[in-house]
Amino acid sequence: MGKRIAFVGAGALGGYVGGYLAHHGQDVTLIDMWPENIEAIRARGLELDGVTPEEKFTVRNVKTMHLTEVQSLSKQKPIDIAFVAVKSYDTEWATLLIRPYLAADGYVVSLQNCANEERIAGIVGWGKTLGVVASLISVEMYDAARIRRTAAKGGDKHTVYRIGEVHGVVTKRVEELVAMFSVIDSVKATTNLWGERWSKLSQNGMRNGVSAVTGLTSPQCDQNPAIRRFAIKLGGEAVRVAQALGYHLENLGKLKPEMLALAAEGNGDAMAEIEELMTTRAHANPRGDIQRPSMAQDIGKGRRTEIDFMNGFIVDKGKMLGIPTPSHEKLVGLVRRLERGEISAAPSHLGG
């Protein structure tokens, strides 16, 4: 019999991945806290879109649950694989919600921004905790049951999904997940989950809050010299913290971690290389006019952001190690003021 899969969180990323897996025949149940989203999926299906016509389709008859219906899982077949796909600040309660319904050999997978595996393991145990890092995917839920991807698929140019155990061994269940995700986009098993997590965290730290505070799309941020250089400082600081923690970082897209750190520290050759890569990427995106990372989407919808779990997390680790992270501290302060309505988004906040 096939595995029973639950997604706790059916927003942009959870809905996108869960929708694809359901579309390809997996036994998927989408659980969400937004009632209108569940009702819309039930009424008209889950609509997915991307940058090519082939990526536009509707997933019909996927199983769904409101939070108030989750207790009915006690009368059903246990969950073999539970993906936690909620905002980082909701990780603990989402994991607690699904824990009673896991099979004896069931496990939980963090499909999130930020580094939440430790929070999940604190609830279900390290032996039941895995991680999926989604790199350069850019998905947005722009309406109930409607999700679009604003970045091209990785294909043979970029590996989007990196799946691993916290201990780094490529196990049978990692291979199982890799096979599942292969119907969505490029994927690999990783022996370096923590390095992958910090690479993605560094990358998000350069983009999410910057787009939120400036009100610009990611490509527009990269095309603005002052904002681009501020983002480079963010990336460089994050790299130095990760290195001090002992992590081996993967490339941040096409950006090499050490070159990024050197650019942030004033190395002219490194700066020229990093800026060229960032501006080239900005001009190459076919949907650059609408590509906004998750934090900018949250600000636009009046929701709480993940700033404390993203840039704030980097600040905390830097303080622990005695490594200055002034750019991250500045951005955290600006995003918090933005959340409270004390300022409005504008490029001038970052000198743009």
> Biggest sheet: strands side by side, in what order?
5-2-1-6-7-8-11-12
Alpha carbon gap, first and last residue: 56 Å
Could you state the order of secondary-structure elements as H and E? EHEHEEEEHEHEEEEHEHHHHHHHH
**Strand coverage percent:** 15-25%
Number of strands: 12
Keywords for this structure?
352 residues, alpha/beta, four-stranded mixed sheet, 13 helices, eight-stranded mixed sheet, single chain
Can you walk through the features of this model?
The chain is an alpha/beta fold and 352 residues long. The chain has 13 helices and 12 strands. The strands form 2 sheets. Strands 5-2-1-6-7-8-11-12 form an 8-stranded mixed β-sheet, with helices on both faces. Strands 4-3-10-9 form a 4-stranded mixed β-sheet. Helix 3 links the parallel strand 6 (79-84) and strand 7. Helix 6 (193-214) packs parallel to helix 11. The longest helix is centred in the middle third of the chain and has 22 residues, at 193-214. It is globular and about 60 Å long. The model has no long low-confidence stretch (mean pLDDT 95).
What's the SSE blueprint?
Blueprint: E1 4-8, H1 12-23, E2 27-32, H2 35-44, E3 46-49, E4 57-59, E5 63-66, E6 79-84, H3 91-98, E7 102-110, H4 117-124, E8 129-134, E9 139-143, E10 146-149, E11 161-165, H5 172-181, E12 187-189, H6 193-214, H7 218-223, H8 225-244, H9 257-264, H10 268-284, H11 294-300, H12 311-321, H13 326-339
Parallel strand pairs: 1-2, 1-6, 2-5, 3-10, 6-7, 7-8, 11-12
Antiparallel strand pairs: 3-4, 8-11, 9-10
Helix pairs in contact: 3-4, 6-8, 6-11, 6-13, 8-9, 9-10, 12-13
